[in-house]
Amino acid sequence: xxxxxxxxxxxxxxxxxxxxxxxxxxxxGVVIVAVxxxxxxxxxxxxxxxxxxxxxxxxxDATHSSFTISWDRPIFAVPEYxxxxxxxxxxxxxxxxxxxxxxxxxxxxxxxxxxxxxRARVCACLRNKIGPPGEDSDEISTRTxxxxxxxxxxxxxxxxxxxxxRYAVQWNAExxxxxxxxxxxxxxxxxxxxxxxxxxxxLISTPHSGKTTLIEGIMNYVLGVRFDDDFRFCLPLxxxxxxxxxxxxxxxxxxxxxxxxxxxxxxxDFPRLESFTKENNGMIRELMESLxxxxxKRINCLCLVSKGNDFELSPEQIKYIKSILxxxxxxxxxxxxxxxxxxxxxxxRIEQFFRYHRIxxxxxFSVNWSAIFHSDDEYSPFLWRINDKRLRLFFDFITxxxxxxxxxxVQMPTPTKREELKSDIANIQPEVSDDLVKLEEMKTRVKIxxxxxxxxxxxxxxxxxxxxxxxIKSDLEPGNHVTNCMQCFFTCHEDCxxxxxxxxxxxxxxxxxxxxxxxxxxxxxxxxxxTPYVYKYVSEKVTKxxxxxxxNYEQEKGRQLTYDEYLGYLNSDIEAFLxxxxxxxxxxxxxxxxxxxxxxxxxxxxxxxxxxxxxxxxTLKREPGYEKRIAMYQELQKYSKMFKVTRN
Length: 648
Fold this sequence. Notes:
Elements: H1 2-43, E1 58-62, E2 67-70, E3 81-88, E4 96-99, E5 106-109, E6 117-126, E7 129-130, E8 140-141, H2 145-151, E9 154-157, E10 165-168, E11 171-176, E12 181-186, H3 191-194, E13 199-205, H4 211-222, E14 231-234, E15 248-253, E16 265-269, H5 278-292, E17 298-299, E18 301-307, H6 315-325, E19 336-341, H7 350-356, E20 363-367, H8 380-399, E21 404-405, H9 415-451, H10 453-459, E22 463-475, E23 481-485, E24 490-496, E25 528-531, E26 533-545, H11 546-557, H12 563-596, H13 607-621, H14 626-647
Parallel strand pairs: 10-14, 12-15, 13-16, 13-18, 18-19, 19-20
Antiparallel strand pairs: 1-2, 2-5, 3-4, 3-6, 6-7, 6-8, 9-10, 11-12, 15-16, 17-21, 22-26, 23-24, 23-25
Helix pairs in contact: 9-12, 9-14, 12-13, 12-14, 13-14
């Protein structure tokens, strides 16, 4: 009975609680349905809204030529595939598209230029329906060209806490033996780049100027290396093989970082010579002629490389620089610039020295590459920024320059004048040889008379026997000719069947490019001349006496001479004879310079250069009496130097 009473009392309360719970659940259900309906209204746009991709694409990875992104699936559909749209960040309206394979929510976009920013968006696709595009991604950037080059390069030095890793760039070379040119390719070439006109610079350097480091600095700049990168590029050691030390090296950078330069770059590295000798003079001439006959004869800029902290250079080095600059037209000097490698990248002291010697670059750039391979040097960031700025200014300078052809600043003689010059040399040279014999005899006579003075004063006479060398001209048989080099004074072909000098390029002594393979200077065919005769030296022993020779001399003077007077006249005759010899060699030198078109250039031969050529010719031919003639040439060389000092 008590239970019945309690049930009657609690029933209304239970009923109220149950009704409350029912109403709460109902309200919660309504809210859930409302939220669901709201979601459907938000994402359901007719039949395609369910394919909307949620959120932005996510960046995953990038290389120098690709980037990888991923994205989230749509909430209300399982797409069969996706279409990914991408564009350069700088061109908002130029979209490109790719399809994914299947329903994968990731893709790698390839064949992109390095160091370029992109944006991407994704559309989901189901059967024949394409969903609306999702949100644009944040900016995605491909990596710099440097990372691509690094993949193909060789680690040559591991990095340390203080030094960055060095990678020797991959390269291949072509050798042009005849031209003495070694072309070195760095980077790949594609068809698009072949259509872009490149720029070429010619480097001329002084000793210890840091030219190799400058080339490496330019290479790191062109290939897109940044200060924060943990590596640097360097030139392989075997790229500068000693076998090619005196060759022109041409570095061709087929790839370049867009934004730093916009053209393929070619660096023409002219070999540096320690001194300006006769041989080096000829080497410069040959190399410049090779360059002017090659595919790289047009350049945009001449670039002088020197140490900025030097106060001066030797006269030989100034002459070397001027000898190269001589090969360019005067108006090309407006494209002369200079790189000064200095300790502080500040003003270069050597620049004033160059200007004093009338070598005035139009633009100059002081750089400091001392920290290019360092990682923790406190000055490295500052020097990197300075070098980067100077290189940017340099490439701005050559970007606006037009190419100019390399052509010698010379006036070559006409064919008629050329034959006249060669004939003059051919006629004077035998006279010089005869005079050398006479000079040697005169000096021998004075030497013996001075040695036998006591005998002469006591007996009035002395006799002596000498080997007398005579030069004999011998005509050749009709149709036979001798090919002689007018530069080297050398017989290059003794039995030549080509009578015409203008056709001498076909002589067997000439190589396919027209240079002699026999004479010491390997001169061009046009400085060779035919003669229908040869000169031979013969020797015979002759006995002479003081009394007889003095009597002949007294008869010439018209009075009696004492011993001292006679020897005084003989010494004066030797001086006068040396002067006449010097004048003849000087005439030959003048003809040689005109023949090469270098009379007014630093490349012009001096009398001493001509005498050196004559000595070399005598040494090689070794004809009778050559040692005595060489001794007389050396006497003439001494006289020529004294004459030059006295004149100056």
